[in-house]
Amino acid sequence: SGERPKNFLEEIIEADIKAGKHGGKVLTRFPPEPNGYLHIGHAKSICLNFGLAQKYGGKTNLRFDDTNPVKEDVEYVNSIKEDIRWLGFEWANEFYASDYFEQLYEWAEELIKKGLAYVDDQTQEEIRKNRGTVTQPGKESPWRNRSVEENLDLFRRMRAGEFNDGEKVLRAKIDMAHPNMLMRDPIMYRIIHAEHHRTGNKWCIYPMYDYAHGQSDSIEKITHSICTLEFDVHRPLYDWFIEKLGIFPSKQYEFARLNLSYTVMSKRKLLELVQQKIVMGWDDPRMPTISGLRRRGYTPESIRYFADKVGVAKRDNVIDLSLLEFCVREDLNKRAERRMAVLNPLKVVITNYPEGQVEELEAVNNPEDESAGKRKVPFSREIYIERDDFMENPPKKFFRLAPGKEVRLRYAYFIKCDEVIKDENGEIVELRCSYDPASRGGQSPDGRKVKGTLHWVSATHAVKAEIRLFDRLFSSPDPNNVPEGQDWKVNINPDSLKVIEGYVEPALKDVKHLDKFQFERLGYFCVDYDSTPDHLVFNRTVTLKDTWAK
Ligand code: ATP
Ligand code: MG
Ligand code: MG
């Protein structure tokens, strides 16, 4: 990553440092609203905010943007902290926008006193209607020219709880004909009689995002406030409040949000999947949440690698989900130990192998990492191979097992198929094979070539395991694109989870939750939270793109 060209945010920060702005200091923030679990889009933002600060010797604050009491909860606060730490980042300070409610309130009074804010009695509906359109100026509120004294009195009474929800709002007095609709007297405060997860019932007026965010940045002396592109139209308002209050001049910069094919990232939609039990929870391995990816078997490194590869764009785009899968594959290839597992077993009896004999064969744990060492794999007269690795009437280029054909068993011997046993329905139930004792370890002394190498487990030693095979949660690459009048969930893939029973080698008996392995020739698998020593459960993280010679 040191090689790639600088992105536009790095250019801006370097220019600011060079110009000695803010004494060369860099302070960023990550500002989640605690109304859901973090997802891969947030991970992009976390990597960017923390990454930029790290790169330029700065710091990053974690600020909970908790200005909406209705949808927020401490469960989310805790999960957000856990996920950021798991990704490998540590914040300089943990702040809450709600900690600034008193300061924000004082500043609102200050704006009223300067004649820059007023209490409006119009209904929400009237306010919306009178805002005008892009081509038509808005209409001024009949309450727009209240005196400072009246505004102060009403605003204080709003705070004191004298009015019902929606009865009054506080608005900035800017320009009802402004070409930017957001500048047409935006709402600063609304009345919500609801308990807040931190401030309890202390407040019944709550600041709007636009009134809270920039000032919160300013209070913390954030130098570079990075947000997604759709906020660019909010920037003039961000600057307006800071300028009128004469406070620390934080600056907002926008980058393109991360969009992923086959993925929805709206927290509202993710919450719906959880509430309607379409998934097992926020951390379902099919969810794009950080906790879901973790349970699926993603590593923090793979997600950071992905965030870096995606880069920083100034225009919206959609990243292919396969890039995320590529990143986890790359990372797990380096760190995951290899094991053998058979997901769709077919029994093989090696007729010339002595009955009752067991051998411990040596297997390399990770060819990419010598320090991972070796392990012993038991071999015996009866083994399981993958049903797909045998064909009774194979096509020409089938290099796996077939009648009369010879293959190599990984770490073990060459075997040749002598006989196919079927049940009364003609279903293949067993193969009878013979092995070449001289081919131990997978080479034969006469140098004869065997193209196919199969994975296997010893039938007498293998351990049963539940294997969860995941597919994409949505069958459409653009799941947010739903035909008029249809539920957004029409694009859900009904077959996104397939549970099977397989056999794994006995070395997997003592695994811990979230341990990660490559099951040779099958993919990467991770131990699920539901796994116990008596009932192993593995999640398939991702299949292998490249398998060794079939
Ligand atoms: P939603 O609208 O679904 O609730 P949000 O963007 O409001 O999501 P926040 O908790 O406010 O969620 O987001 C915290 C930070 O993460 C914000 O700075 C936001 O810009 C950033 N972020 C959210 N989604 C993405 C995304 N898809 N790509 C990049 N950054 C994102
Ligand atoms: Mg939101
Ligand atoms: Mg937000």
UniProtKB/TrEMBL annotation:
Per UniProt, which keywords does this protein have? Aminoacyl-tRNA synthetase, ATP-binding, Cytoplasm, Ligase, Nucleotide-binding, Protein biosynthesis
**Keyword set includes Aminoacyl-tRNA synthetase:** yes
Q: What are the Glutamyl/glutaminyl-tRNA synthetase class Ib catalytic domain coordinates in residue numbering?
A: 25-333
User: InterPro entries per the record?
Assistant: aa-tRNA-synth_I_CS (IPR001412), Gln-tRNA-synth (IPR004514), Gln/Glu-tRNA_Ligase (IPR050132), Gln_tRNA_ligase_bac (IPR022861), Glu/Gln-tRNA-synth (IPR000924), Glu/Gln-tRNA-synth_Ib_cat-dom (IPR020058), Glu/Gln-tRNA-synth_Ib_codon-bd (IPR020059), Rbsml_bL25/Gln-tRNA_synth_N (IPR020056)
The alphabetized list of GO BP terms reads: glutaminyl-tRNA aminoacylation; glutamyl-tRNA aminoacylation
Q: What is its main location?
A: cytoplasm
GO CC terms of this entry? cytosol
- Domain spans labelled tRNA synthetases class I (E and Q) anti-codon binding: 453-528
Source domain of life: Bacteria
Q: What is its EC number?
A: 6.1.1.18
Task: State the reactions this protein catalyses.
Answer: tRNA(Gln) + L-glutamine + ATP = L-glutaminyl-tRNA(Gln) + AMP + diphosphate
Chain sites annotated for binding L-glutamine:
65, 209
**Chain ranges for the short sequence motif 'KMSKS' region as given in the UniProt record:** 264-268
Instruction: Please name the top-level EC class of this enzyme.
Output: ligase
The cellular location(s) given in this protein's UniProt record come to: Cytoplasm
The record's comment on protein family reads: Belongs to the class-I aminoacyl-tRNA synthetase family.
Which PANTHER family does this chain map to? GLUTAMATE--TRNA LIGASE, GLUTAMINE-TRNA LIGASE
Name under which the protein is recorded: Glutamine--tRNA ligase
Q: Which organism is it from?
A: Tenuifilum thalassicum
Upper lineage: Bacteria, Pseudomonadati, Bacteroidota, Bacteroidia, Bacteroidales
